[in-house]
Amino acid sequence: MYQPLIVPPGQAAYDAGGRNLGFKDQRLALEWVNENIGYFGGDSTKVTLFGTSAGGISAGVQTFYKKGEIGGLFHGIILESGSPGTVRALKPDHPIREAGFRFLANATGCLSGPSVCDLRTLQPDGPIPAAGFQLIANATGCLGDPSVFECIQKAPADVLSQANVDVLALEPTIFGPSYSPEDDFIAEPVRDILYSGKFAKVPFINGAQLDEGPILIDMLATNFSSEQDIVDWLTSGFGMSNLTAINELLKFYSTSPAAGSPYGTGDETFDKGPQFKRIASALGDYLFQAPRRDHLTYATKFGVKSWSYILKESSLGFPPKYGIAHGGDIPFVFQTLDINHPNAPQAAIELMKTIGSYWVNFAYSLDPNAGGDNLPLWPQYGEEKVALQLLGSNVTTIEDTDRTEATDFILKNDGSF
């Protein structure tokens, strides 16, 4: 998830030049790498960005710099469980972003102007939850300051860190990128950037875990016993406000636990309520699978070489309720599975080596098949929408068509929720 230091929310932050600061920091780091990598034996023409979750999102957003004029700072990207559209970019003065700014201002003692009680009006759906209001009311107080943003910049790191924890418990989407015509990275909504081809046409891999949603739902909420619990959480805790769109979305997801995520676990609900797996499936598609497919589809339209995967190997160290979990790919990519889990199945160890070979091949040659490693052929995503199944010794191609009606609906109604 994004934090306020990376993407400061609100119009005041924007007016003070604080928009999308994290992306600027990343760009500066890439410029340093470009200038200095040769001293470490590296090749400045073969820099590949990769990241998981927010790191994957960031890697994708870096291709948007100045409408794709990236200056040769990298030649390819790998996105793992995160796409440019995973966290929706909003206008700086969007009510959710303004709510985030006021929360930070109050928590750091920097708020001037309206009473803290006025924060209730900043939610697009009306009052924020009582628990969240208590967090705000019990913050450090409304100490007036002529420059609220500058005051927040000077706040102690531990105060900002705690404010981040508190506000994300209230509203997990409150921090995120903003778009504006003047921004070097996100000058317009992400989907408009993709549709118009205003991004660097560098080859990429964009993949996901089978079960992206459960761990996030479990971190942010406790129990889902009814459909109304889902609707209430999406409106009061996830920033959605269009009840019609929410209800239409839920029609694509069965009420049967056997159809939900973690997939393939039957009627087990893991003591999280009969609707837990339903909302986990929907959120996994909304945040990860739909944006991934969108990124790949429009890259294909503009002739960009791209590959996709779905990792289906068990996430060792995660409880069963998380399934093939968000973040479960990290030990496979970093080649630490056998170190962290000495008793890992041999098939999982072999999969780790396979993934390592694909990633290195891509980083060097911009083609995961280029190393001559006797790996299964990994076709480009293309119009056929082909992905690679990463599952133990069964690494094979699959059609990326699961729940396409749902993900198509999500993409068609992007911005309507």
From TrEMBL:
Keywords: Hydrolase. The keyword Hydrolase applies. It comes from the Eukaryota. GO terms for molecular function: hydrolase activity. It holds the Pfam family COesterase. Residues 20-409 form the Carboxylesterase type B domain. Its EC number is 3.1.1.-. InterPro entries: AB_hydrolase_fold (IPR029058), CarbesteraseB (IPR002018), Carboxylesterase_B_AS (IPR019826), Type-B_Carboxylest/Lipase (IPR050309). Belongs to the type-B carboxylesterase/lipase family. This is Carboxylic ester hydrolase. PROSITE patterns: CARBOXYLESTERASE_B_1.
